[in-house]
Known about the structure:
Blueprint: E1 20-28, H1 31-44, E2 48-60, E3 68-74, H2 77-85, E4 93-103, H3 108-128, H4 146-153, E5 161-169, H5 183-201, E6 205-212, E7 218-220, E8 232-238, H6 253-263, E9 264-273
Antiparallel strand pairs: 1-3, 1-4, 2-3, 2-9, 4-6, 4-7, 5-8, 5-9, 6-8
Helix pairs in contact: 3-5, 5-6
Amino acid sequence: MLNIIPDPDKLIYSKEKKKVVLFYFFKYSDKKTNSKKIKKTFRDNDIKCLHWFNCEYTIIGKKDYWTTASIVELSSKEHLKEVFKKKIINNNITALQVFNIKPNNPSKAVLFIIKLFLRPFGILIDMIIKNSYDSIDLNSKILPTKKQFLKLYNDKRKKKAFMINLLESYKTAKYDNNKIISGKEAYYKKYGNVAIRSVILTGGDLTFVGKIIGNTLIEYNLPNDTKGNWESIGIMEYCKPNKLFSLQKMPGYKKALIHRNAGLKRTVNIFSLK
Length: 274
């Protein structure tokens, strides 16, 4: 029987009195019923649910698999120990993956200022230049398939879209000119900063970013896409699903893709709703 609460002894980050933040992937057959049960379980044990996502389909990866994802917060490692001892079981869960994460979100004040000054320019650019599937840079080795691209491109829903990214960078970035910097610097700084700015220009937002600490805490019946240890999690918000294609139009974004290609070793991208 699977305890959905991870063993606190597996944590390598977290002082006894420091908050513990966990990222969950769940798979089960009845999304509505089981989501309610798990949320109630968290509430009954004073586990704060920071975010809850309904996974719709995979953008980068081989298969659609996970049902929901959540980010939760416990008050301390001692709190986690107390809940773990209760051995919380849910037999409807057919797959489960749990990470310990250290949030690294930018200052809300800084993001507010960026949004205030940049978004009007992004709206203007978006109005002038039309989205086109043919304009997408297809030179990266880590991209959606044509079928996945078209599914997102043709998704006309007006709901906010949340892109969940599991990320791992190269130890040393792989540039064609043999430039020597770390994969982390290439991806997170040289590409990542431009990507966040571009998302904000399109009317989107940064929902969450965090470093994964240590090994995966729970691995049960995982797909190959998300199996193994990862480096970080980033979740971006778009005002609607196919708004992601507007990134290509934003100043500096296409040029920054060289740093994405050089720094990013592997990723999984899952399109979700709240």
